[in-house]
């Protein structure tokens, strides 16, 4: 996938993760995009390591892995931000 596709995919995955985990998070739109993009990468890495697959394109399995990765990053982000 190209860089624009990763940004769009990350935006969608980050928005879905934010909808599944509502709450007050600083950063807004930019942080949502970054969490989605990095979540897709992290989810793909973890999924591949566990044998579930990876983020290979715009399909349901890749989307699910990207959303789970974004949720994982959102939880970590909230834990780190909560300590301050």
Automatic annotation (TrEMBL):
Keyword check for Membrane, yes or no.
Answer: yes
Q: Topologically, how does it sit relative to the membrane?
A: Multi-pass membrane protein
Q: Which GO terms describe its cellular component?
A: plasma membrane
Question: Where would you find the membrane-spanning parts of this chain?
Answer: 27-46, 58-80
Q: What Pfam families does UniProt report for this protein, alphabetically?
A: Transgly_assoc (PF04226)
Top-rank taxon = Bacteria
Key word Cell membrane present: yes
List, alphabetically, the InterPro entries matched.
Transgly_assoc
Subcellular location(s): the record lists:
Cell membrane
Q: Which UniProt keywords apply?
A: Cell membrane, Membrane, Transmembrane, Transmembrane helix
Q: Which family does it belong to?
A: Belongs to the UPF0410 family.
Name of the featured protein: Uncharacterized membrane protein YeaQ/YmgE, transglycosylase-associated protein family
């Amino acid at each position: 996938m190209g860089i624009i596709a990763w940004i769009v995919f990350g935006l969608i995955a980050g928005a879905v993760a934010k909808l599944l985990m509502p709450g007050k998070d600083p950063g807004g739109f930019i942080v949502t995009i970054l969490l989605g993009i990095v979540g897709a990468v992290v989810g793909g890495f973890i999924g591949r390591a566990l044998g579930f697959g990876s983020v290979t394109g715009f399909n349901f399995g890749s989307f699910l892995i990207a959303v789970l990765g974004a949720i994982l990053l959102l939880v970590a982000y909230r834990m780190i931000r909560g300590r301050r």
